[in-house]
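Much of what follows relies on a compact textual record of a protein's fold. Each token is a code from a learned vocabulary of local backbone shapes. The record below shows the convention in full.
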Amino acid sequence: MLALGGSAFEELIKEKINYQGVLSLRFNFRTISPQLKDLSYVDKIEIIGSVYHKTSLDIVPSVLFEMPQLELLRIDDTHLAHLPSEIARLPQLNNLRLANNRLKDLPESLGQLSKLQILSLFNNRIAQLPESLGQLTELRELWLFANQLQELPASIGDLSQLERLHLSSNQLQALPPELGKLSNLKELSLSGNPIRHFPESLSCLQSLRFLDVRRNSYLDHRQRFWLQKQLPNCSIQF
């Protein structure tokens, strides 16, 4: 732990704040000090590792949960293995990015982040999503490609503001009919999933403009024709 006090610590932090007002801590996590919570003007934090540096951060630093003003939290490429239920102590979060880590599951308390608009969790090991996901009614973008998902919760249909849903390279064999309730959905990526059947409710996605269903050996000519007929205004990649 880097031990700096008073103005010395604050000056170090200010040097790491970029032009967008984001506190960016890259490669060296020793700079995450308990004093961070005293910087009330910091509302965006990035903690980013690198495949070229031996950096590891298995758990979210507890000091971050003492910063309720946070609007953006990004922890990428750090080997993060667990997201604690305390994430709900960040009620102002509208952008949560935890990509390229080792997460296997998500806490039910995630659904309490009522202001969340972007949730990026791609390239983890997530096998199941919490039912509380549907409580994120302000969510616009959900990035879940390259995980181990075998099914989606029915509550995903409650994400009424969702515009982008990326689920490529998972293990999905079916889609819940509730997916058809996503009336604002514009992009849906499903490539690399062994989906055997598409629910009829997909025809309700009249705002959809892009659909990716490539790399699916179960997709036959009949299903292709049906998708094209039901989604005439959508660009479909087979």
